[in-house]
Amino acid sequence: MKINSRKKNQIREIAEFLAMEHDETITPLKKIAHLEDVPVFYDDYGNAFDGTLVYDNGYYIHLNTALGNTQDKERGRFTLAHELGHYFINTHRLALKEGLLEPHPSRYNKNKHQMIEREADFFASCLLMPQERFRLDCEFYRRFDYNIIEDLHKKYHVSITACAIRFADIGTHPIMVVYMEDNKIQWKWQSDDFQFWNLADGKINVPKDSLAGQYFRTGIGQKRTEELWGIDWFNDIRDEDLNSKIFEQVIPYKNKALSIVWFA
């Protein structure tokens, strides 16, 4: 389920207006919260949540340091931007104030299919990487490779995942981003003009001949880029495209992996 275009434009306009009011490339989130009189509390909440916005005669944001949501970490910055999304998106803020929406703790990489979370994630991406500024930086590079994502994620102080998704949306080369756990695809995100959509082994199973598939199968692997055949990742490839080559950057970690895939 996608955010409808009218709501998406509204969210983008609000988030990018807030970001572009400041000259810093790294959006000053705490300053934005302070200007709105929204206190931000960092504390250890165990495994309960990453962040939450609550209303009690005023709005408050709570961020869970136990899960890495500290002020200086990329994860904490995205979670704070996400909770600011719940505050600045009128329907979210008013529903919370009027009791129509219960305080709902957010979890990083989870609940991607809930519309309210998609909207807050989109707000966070626009706030942290406003289109005008981010696109200009993308155009600096003539040809895509994974180092672009590395450069941009450091420049904007966002995670590789958030940066790759934003690049897929507004970057200068079509890419696909896939997040996996225990050899199962949790979600994927790709540019509208990405060449193929149907994965080799279905919507859930990690393609066995991909770098990620090899990692889950053997338990051995490291962060690297490798050239593969298109059929290693995709199904229903036309005969004339059977010799198409792709690149996959895999970032494995324990029972998880993130892959970024693109055509040369």
UniProtKB/TrEMBL annotation:
Which Gene3D superfamilies would you find in this protein's record? 1.10.10.2910
InterPro entries the record matches: IrrE_HExxH, Rad_response_metalloprotease
* Name of a matching Pfam family: Peptidase_M78
Q: Which residues form the IrrE N-terminal-like domain?
A: 51-166
Protein name stated in the entry: ImmA/IrrE family metallo-endopeptidase
Gene source species: Paralabilibaculum antarcticum
